[in-house]
């Protein structure tokens, strides 16, 4: 065990949890109507709790167990069987590696929340998210990070998929799942309401930016120069994408908005994620500059060409960003085209099929969508019995 590595990953674990709670909750919560903000908070918090338990029960074993095959890790480490305070994973206590990866298993299904807010059933959110994490996310983790079929020497050749911190594992899977759920769910009755609190959006984005240092820097799994470089390029990409999004908005619409500026931040962060362990600061600058414009145009395509009501643009920002960053690894010659494109296609098809099947199956057990009255009045009061703001008190 290395004490410095252990100390850094303890901090990184806290930072990644901070991304979901409270970062993502505030970012998404500010983008919805005032009558829906508590339901968004509820989704993020409840998912964090449920994924933590399911990761202990079976998720970690499926992803990182050594008793399975190239497709899954088996159930030998279910409930952390055989893992104690003295067990090691590299230079880290294995229980710390478990906790660090648990925060990734929390935020990935939480990202999907942005696609279906304002009209989804709370029971569906929990049942779907739990099954999706176990049956879709955890196997993909095994394929790419756990020694599975897409690693070096796997089905894509001697050089496997390069995905440092989750461009495919986190952002492509969550983005595609979000797009499919939004398509099946159908549009909101009112798609034109503006964000109720852009201040929340900015604060949430700022928390995500800070937390992303743990997300990408921690994925080095060591306190060394590689972690420092990952942290640095993450910051450069986020800063550049923020400005390129705002500039493109200014050119197209005559004004640059706060919500646009900070959405660009998230686009830059998602795009640099898979490449953060491989690129240098100048390459990060290029990734961020393109990501701010590319993801903004993807928003228009999803909304106006595909006519899919992905409420908070999960696919356009996270999905497209993660896919773009994964491809840029091959563009810069830091990975093979076969592995990068092959990984995207294999995981994309798998995620799409599993997500669609789960949506249909879970909808048989618990309602997929709230009724029209609940959607109009907002689930905060109708489903959870609370209001975010009581102006009369």
In summary, what is this structure?
The protein is an all-alpha fold and 393 residues long. It is built from 13 helices and 2 strands; from the N terminus they run H-H-E-E-H-H-H-H-H-H-H-H-H-H-H.
Report on the structure:
This protein has a single domain (3-383), classed as Orthogonal Bundle (Ammonium transporter fold), CATH 1.10.3430. It has helices spanning 3-31, 37-64, 94-116, 122-145, 167-185, 198-217, 225-253, 258-272, 281-305, 314-331, 337-365, 372-377, 379-384, and strands at residues 88-89, 92-93. Helix 6 (198-217) runs antiparallel to helix 7 and helix 10 (314-331) packs antiparallel against helix 11. It is built from 13 helices and two strands; from the N terminus they run H-H-E-E-H-H-H-H-H-H-H-H-H-H-H. It has a two-stranded antiparallel ribbon. With 393 residues, the chain is an all-alpha fold. Helices cover 69% and strands 1% of the residues. A hairpin with a 2-residue loop joins strand 1 (88-89) and strand 2. The termini are far apart.
